[in-house]
Design brief:
- By secondary structure, the protein is mostly helical.
- The protein has one domain.
- Helix content is 69%, strand content 6%.
- The longest helix is centred in the middle third of the chain and has 97 residues.
- The chain is rod-shaped, with a radius of gyration of 48 Å.
- The relative contact order is 0.05.
C-alpha cells in the first residue's frame, strides 16, 4: 500500500501525486478510491460497481418502457373491472330492494286478507245472531 493520503470523500479520486497536486494536467492514474460506503476500493472494483449500476439502470429503463407500452391496456382493463364490480353491486342492491318490496307486499296482502276474513266472520255472526233473535221473537 502506498503512503499517499486518502480521505473519505465519495466524489474524488484520492491518489493524486503530492508533487503535482495543484495542477490538474499532471494527475497520475488513481490506484484507490475511498468512499463512504465501504472504505477504500480499487479502481477496478469501482468501475465494476459503476458498470453493474449502469446495467441495472438500463434494465429499469427498458422495463419502464415496456410498462409504458401496456399502460393504456392496463388502464382500460382496470376500468372494465371497476365497471363490472359497480354493476354487480347495483344488481345486488336492486335485488335487495325487490325482496324488501315483495316482503312489504306479502305482509300487506296478508293483513288485508285477514281483515276481509274478520269482516266476513263478523257479518256471518251478525246475520246468525239476527236470525236467532228473529226466531226467538216469534216464539215469544
Amino acid at each position: 500500500m502506498s503512503s499517499k493520503p486518502t480521505t473519505t470523500c465519495s466524489c474524488k479520486f484520492n491518489s493524486l501525486s503530492p508533487s503535482h497536486s495543484a495542477s490538474p494536467l499532471h494527475l497520475s492514474p488513481p490506484a484507490q478510491i475511498s468512499c463512504n460506503r465501504g472504505g477504500v476500493r480499487s479502481v477496478k472494483e469501482e468501475s465494476t460497481s459503476i458498470l453493474a449500476s449502469l446495467v441495472i439502470y438500463f434494465c429499469v429503463i427498458r422495463l419502464f418502457r415496456e410498462t409504458e407500452k401496456h399502460r393504456e391496456k392496463e388502464r382500460l382493463a382496470a376500468i372494465a373491472i371497476q365497471t363490472n364490480w359497480r354493476m354487480l353491486k347495483v344488481k345486488w342492491m336492486f335485488k335487495k330492494k325487490v325482496r324488501a318490496c315483495m316482503f312489504i307486499s306479502r305482509v300487506f296482502r296478508g293483513h288485508t286478507g285477514r281483515l276481509f276474513v274478520d269482516k266476513t266472520k263478523q257479518g256471518r255472526n251478525y246475520s246468525r245472531q239476527m236470525s236467532y233473535y228473529a226466531q226467538m221473537a216469534t216464539i215469544i
